[in-house]
Design goal:
four-stranded antiparallel sheet, 59% strand, globular, mainly beta
Length: 192
C-alpha cells in the first residue's frame, strides 16, 4: 500500500508475446495498481530490459518507493536465474533495477532495513540441492554489503521464502530446511 495515496500495488509474472511476427513467449514482471475503493488504475509490464525473462515475487514499501524481488534469466531455457530487485514509483512503474552476480538464485522475499539496505531472501541451487541465501545491498550499483547462507542440518533442500525487517535493524527470514529426512519450518534473525 502506498502510504501517500493508499493505492494498492501488486506484482507478479505474466507470459508475454513480443509481437505478432515474433511469437516467442517471455515471462515478464507485471504490476497492477488498484484504488482502495475498488478498480484497477494502471498496469505495467517489464520490457525485458536486463534479460528477456524476469519475474517479481515480493513487494515492499521502502522509504518513498516500492521494491520488488524476483529473478531474471536469458532466452535459453537452460540458463540459470539471477536475483533481480526493481524499484517502482508510487504508480507502479519501474524506475531502476539491479541484478546481483549470484548464479542460480531466485528471490522470494524482500524488505528494506532501517539504513535502507535492500534485504533479499531466496534460494540458490548448489550441487544439485537448494540452500537459503539472504543478502543485503544498497541500490543501485554497490556490491552486496552482507550475506548469510543457510545449508540446513541435513542433506536436502533449504530455502528462504520471506523476510521482514523492523525499526531496530533486525531482519527475520522464514522458510524451510531438511532435517532428519523431513522438511520443517525455520525462522532466523539477523542484524545485517
Amino acid at each position: 500500500v502506498n502510504p501517500d495515496t493508499l493505492d494498492v500495488l501488486t506484482v507478479g509474472e505474466r507470459e508475454f508475446q513480443e509481437s505478432e511476427q515474433n511469437k516467442a513467449v517471455r515471462q515478464r514482471t507485471f504490476t497492477a495498481r488498484y484504488d482502495p475503493l475498488g478498480g484497477r488504475l494502471a498496469t505495467w509490464t517489464s520490457t525485458g530490459d536486463y534479460f528477456p525473462h524476469d519475474s517479481a515475487r515480493s513487494l515492499r514499501w521502502c522509504s518513498d518507493t516500492f521494491i520488488a524481488g524476483g529473478w531474471t534469466r536469458d532466452i535459453d531455457p537452460n540458463s540459470t536465474p539471477q536475483p533481480l530487485v526493481r524499484r517502482f514509483d508510487g504508480e507502479g512503474k519501474s524506475i531502476s533495477r539491479r541484478a546481483d552476480p549470484f548464479a542460480d538464485v531466485m528471490i522470494y522475499g524482500v524488505d528494506c532495513d532501517r539504513e535502507e539496505k535492500v534485504v533479499s531472501a531466496g534460494e540458490r541451487v548448489v550441487g544439485g540441492q537448494t540452500d537459503a541465501l539472504i543478502f543485503a545491498t544498497k541500490l543501485p550499483e554497490q556490491p552486496p554489503v552482507w550475506q548469510a547462507d543457510h545449508h540446513g542440518l541435513g542433506n536436502g533442500d533449504d530455502g528462504a521464502t520471506a523476510v521482514d525487517c523492523n525499526a531496530w535493524g533486525f531482519c527475520a527470514w522464514g522458510g524451510y530446511e531438511f532435517v532428519a529426512g523431513k522438511t520443517q519450518a525455520i525462522v532466523k534473525v539477523h542484524y545485517p
